[in-house]
Structures are given as C-alpha cells and as structure tokens.
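Suppose a colleague, Dr. K., hands you the sequence of a protein chain of 244 amino acids and asks what its three-dimensional shape might be. Before reaching for any lab equipment, you can write down a predicted structure in token form. Begin with the sequence itself:
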Amino acid sequence: MEVILSIAGSDSSAGAGIQQDLKTISALGCYGATAITAITSQNTIGVQGVMAVPAEVVKSQIHSVMTDLNVSAVKIGMIPNIEIAKVIVESLTSFNGFIICDPVMISTSGTQLMNDDCVEYVIDNLFPLCTLITPNIPESERINNRYSTAYLIKGGHADGEEMTDTLYLTDGSSHTYSEKRIATKNLHGTGCTLSSSIACYMAKGNSLPMAVANAKSFITKAILRATNIQIGHGNGPLLCFDNN
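The predicted structure, expressed as tokens, is then:
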C-alpha cells in the first residue's frame, strides 16, 4: 500500500488540512501519515485562531515517519512560519519520492496563514524540491511567476460558469482541465483534497497530467456529493468517499 505523508495544519472542523487529507488518502486506497504544522481553531465560517507547532516538533514528526514508513509521496499544506519551512526543507532535501505543495497563504475567509518572510523562503528553497505546486489565482499572483517546478494554477477564483485549471510542465508544455462551475456553498477544503489526491495518484504510478486529471474527477464527485448537505452554517466541507 502506498504511504502518503501530509505535512499540514489541523482543522478543528475537519473540513480541510490534515483531517481532509486523511479522508482523501484513505478514500483513494492509500495509507496516510501526518506531521502537524499548526493547530487551528476554525469552522465553516472562518478561522478563529492559529497556533504554530514548535519547529523541532514538526521535524521530529517527519523524522519519525520517514525512518519507519516507506513514504511514496508527500503533500505539503499550511506552513505558518519560516522556522517550520526550514525544517521541512531540511527533512525533504534527500527525499526521492513525489512532493506536492499546496501553498496555503490565505484562508478562504481572508486570514493570512503564511507570513511574508516564510513566503519568500518557501519560493526560493521549498519549491525547487517539489514535483508540483498547486496555487490558486491569488496565491499565483503573490508568487509572481517565480516557479522552479511544474505548477497547476487553479481557476476556482475566476468569474464565469466554467472553471479552468492549467498545468504547466517543466518542458514548457501545458494541459488544461475545464469543467462547469458547480452551484454550491460547500467548498471548504477543495485545495487540500486536490493536492492530496494528486499525491495519491502520483504514488500509484500515474503521470503528472493523468494524476491531475484523475484528481479533478475525484474532487468533482466529492463536491457533487456535498452539494445539498449542511454541516455548519457557512462554507461546508466536501464528501470524500471512494472514487465511484
């Protein structure tokens, strides 16, 4: 069984972050391990509080997993400060598997989750280690086209009835993935779900373009399942089961 390590923050409402990653990884038949970077107090309405985990504890979590489990792919989410960014880079420099980074900089509700010095360090030092970066449009503008690896720009923030994600590969080629916008308020954790599912499909042997295509199919079904449910009073979560 493929092992996926999620290095990310904890979401107390379980709609995003570590909790959503584990749901996604399990739904796709892989085994999920974790290294928690931050503990957040949040729900479907917004983020009420953030506490970063000490960097040495993040480092020891990654070390514990890497020295025992045969990790095929790593998904990286919330990195709250530069100290944690540095231990992640140090821990993954010699890792030979796939690394998918979802650069979580600002929450959907507008809370800044990565400070400016951390953003700069991640761009210069973490991105070059990655297989793929998955920024949304605001994050892409913040990164300002400073990519050193393949990247998938997610089109969910664009206007219109059709959403288009574009994958740019290091050989200069690109792939587009378009679908009709689903009318729903339940979109909490879409970035986490997409990046962790790409990690799973890569670990299972898919090419990068095919992994993205399969992940897009998975997340579309997860959104559709959640369209008419009500969990909380705001931006509800997706429903990740199997891929059928």
